[in-house]
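Worked Example 4.2. Consider the chain below.
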Amino acid sequence: MGNNCPTAEWRSWEYVLRNVKKAVMDELLLMKLMENALKGGCNRWRYEVLRNGPGPSK
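Applying the procedure from the previous section yields the following structure tokens:
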């Protein structure tokens, strides 16, 4: 049975317009920064809970 899914033809990054490249790279950087911030916040919260015990629930 053949594959009926259309495939995108690969184009080199050099053919992408400069402003589009910048927008994509900015978006990727923002996503990475947000991911790191969320991980850091979760790790700090976990550390405080382990250190101080669970606090009263709100």
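The chain has a mean pLDDT of 79. The helical segments are 18-52. Compare this with Example 4.1 before moving on.
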